[in-house]
Amino acid sequence: MDWLIWIGAIISFAGLAGLIWCIVHVWSSKRKGLSDEELRDVVRRVVPLNMGALMCSVLGLMMVILGIFLG
Q1: Which terminus of the chain is more exposed, N or C, with fewer CB under 10 A?
Q2: The model's pTM
Q3: What phi-psi label fits residue 33: left (phi over 0), alpha (psi between -120 and 50 degrees) or beta?
Protein backbone atom coordinates (compact mmCIF):
# COMPACT_ATOMS: atom_id res chain seq x y z
CA MET A 1 0.00 0.00 0.00
CA ASP A 2 2.95 2.30 -0.48
CA TRP A 3 1.23 3.89 -3.47
CA LEU A 4 -1.70 4.94 -1.27
CA ILE A 5 0.67 6.58 1.20
CA TRP A 6 2.48 8.53 -1.52
CA ILE A 7 -0.70 9.62 -3.30
CA GLY A 8 -2.15 10.71 0.04
CA ALA A 9 0.99 12.66 0.86
CA ILE A 10 0.86 14.45 -2.49
CA ILE A 11 -2.83 15.32 -2.04
CA SER A 12 -2.19 16.49 1.50
CA PHE A 13 0.73 18.65 0.35
CA ALA A 14 -1.46 20.19 -2.37
CA GLY A 15 -4.06 21.04 0.27
CA LEU A 16 -1.40 22.57 2.49
CA ALA A 17 -0.14 24.65 -0.43
CA GLY A 18 -3.70 25.85 -1.01
CA LEU A 19 -4.05 26.83 2.64
CA ILE A 20 -0.79 28.76 2.53
CA TRP A 21 -1.91 30.51 -0.66
CA CYS A 22 -5.17 31.57 1.02
CA ILE A 23 -3.30 32.97 4.02
CA VAL A 24 -0.82 34.88 1.86
CA HIS A 25 -3.57 36.24 -0.41
CA VAL A 26 -5.68 37.61 2.44
CA TRP A 27 -2.62 38.89 4.30
CA SER A 28 -1.33 40.75 1.23
CA SER A 29 -4.79 42.21 0.63
CA LYS A 30 -4.87 43.42 4.21
CA ARG A 31 -1.43 45.01 3.88
CA LYS A 32 -2.54 46.89 0.76
CA GLY A 33 -4.80 48.95 2.97
CA LEU A 34 -8.07 48.02 1.33
CA SER A 35 -11.28 49.38 2.79
CA ASP A 36 -13.29 47.20 5.12
CA GLU A 37 -15.85 46.32 2.45
CA GLU A 38 -13.18 45.46 -0.15
CA LEU A 39 -11.37 43.27 2.38
CA ARG A 40 -14.62 41.47 3.18
CA ASP A 41 -15.11 40.78 -0.54
CA VAL A 42 -11.62 39.30 -0.75
CA VAL A 43 -12.27 37.09 2.25
CA ARG A 44 -15.65 36.00 0.84
CA ARG A 45 -13.94 34.86 -2.36
CA VAL A 46 -11.15 33.06 -0.51
CA VAL A 47 -13.28 31.16 2.05
CA PRO A 48 -14.56 28.48 -0.39
CA LEU A 49 -11.01 27.90 -1.65
CA ASN A 50 -9.81 27.69 1.94
CA MET A 51 -12.45 25.07 2.80
CA GLY A 52 -11.62 23.09 -0.34
CA ALA A 53 -7.91 23.13 0.46
CA LEU A 54 -8.62 22.06 4.04
CA MET A 55 -10.78 19.18 2.80
CA CYS A 56 -8.09 18.15 0.33
CA SER A 57 -5.48 18.14 3.08
CA VAL A 58 -7.68 16.09 5.41
CA LEU A 59 -8.51 13.55 2.70
CA GLY A 60 -4.82 13.20 1.88
CA LEU A 61 -3.95 12.59 5.52
CA MET A 62 -6.76 10.03 5.75
CA MET A 63 -5.29 8.23 2.74
CA VAL A 64 -1.86 8.20 4.38
CA ILE A 65 -3.29 6.74 7.60
CA LEU A 66 -5.28 4.16 5.65
CA GLY A 67 -2.19 3.19 3.66
CA ILE A 68 -0.18 2.76 6.85
CA PHE A 69 -2.98 0.76 8.46
CA LEU A 70 -3.40 -1.55 5.46
CA GLY A 71 0.32 -1.86 4.75
Answers
A1: C
A2: 0.87
A3: left
